[in-house]
Amino acid sequence: MNAIKHVDSHMDDLISDLQTLIRQPSVSAKNEGIEECAKLVQKLLQKSGIKSEILRLKKDVAPIVYGEIKSKQNPSKTLLFYNHYDVQPAEPFDLWDDPPFSGVRKGNKIFGRGATDDKGELITRIKAVEAYLKTTGDVPCNIKFVIEGEEETGSEHIEDYLKKYQKKFSCDGVIWEFGYVDAKNRPIVGLGMKGLLFVELSVKESVRDAHSSLAVLIKNPAWRLIEAINTLRNSDGKILIKDWYKEVSSFSKNDLDIIQKEPFDENVFKKEFGITSFVGNKKGMDAKKALVGGATCNIAGFVSGYTGDGAKTVLPGSALVKIDFRLVPKMNPKKQVLRLKNHLKSKGFSDVDIKVFHGEAAARTDSSHPFVSQVKDAADKSYGKSILNVSNAGTGPMHPFVEILKAPCISIGSTYMFSRIHSPNEFARVDLLKKTTKCICMIMDNFGQA
Asked: What pLDDT sits at residue 394?
């Protein structure tokens, strides 16, 4: 395949374009460089021969960069690439070995915020399409790009974009914005993603912080909040909110077979994170099933009183906790919020204020869908061996794509599982960028021929 040879001989272009992307900050949480990065992505698409435009929903909403190539040989099938150009904040800056937006290359690694998540992944899709256009003047099927700028803040408007541009985005299959590569360099072909419900619980007791000697008379809101959140789950991680799991289905036999075959090195995982045991002391199949289909209730942050160096005898006037719940298929975020509210009320915590940031339902593609074997075959050929995964442990806006576009979604990509995404010194591996670009070429070919 000439396109594959083109990838081999043009890796310098891929690396250079990725470095250009990294050097343009695009932090959605701070609205930093979003417009500039959208224009840069549009420019990179056009440079690669992909017709592109910037789509807008309304003022103050990050634009979507849309790209499209119509196939001459196969105009009846359409593959859509979903990616995002926004990145996480780079703080804490002092933990970076090099400036976070430098895009510096050191051997087989390119460092910088977004190097992998998601600018590295995006560049593999663009360069795969470019390889076909440069070598054959055509693509094996119609190609569309939907590249958003709010993924790192919860993709608040992606559903509105999908509804507004439903006809424009119509497709027969979606390649998701990323895919993990495990510690043994095997790509994980993901068939789904968990959902997410992010809330903030808070208690205000007094009008201001007070001297801690007054704790004999003034209630401490931190204790109140601790008592409240202690009712949400047990030490094994099971969520204790009434009917939380009511709609959840058991794994199918086919799902269990896939989960059983999926390798998971517990020792490597524990060593990477410096831990000695898992929640509920899970082992083997139970640990794997939890990653794929376990719901969570996680304290993402707790703030109250004085947290600086040294001692300060203070009685805080308020306390706040941020909690994220990972949801599994058939859990409706709106319904789960009501269950949370009812739970706190029934336990006597009506004084706890609840603020909902966002909710996202889970989604999965049936493992028997033909698209699955097309992607897996390409991954096997480009990497030597790949692994099927029923669902990723993380969250992305896959559900609206499945529901609105009625298309199967599969994740495959170059994200080395220990590439420090969302952390200082995030990096992309050049060897994986190359293999993934070739893999995308093969997916396009398989999809077009099927």
From this structure: 87
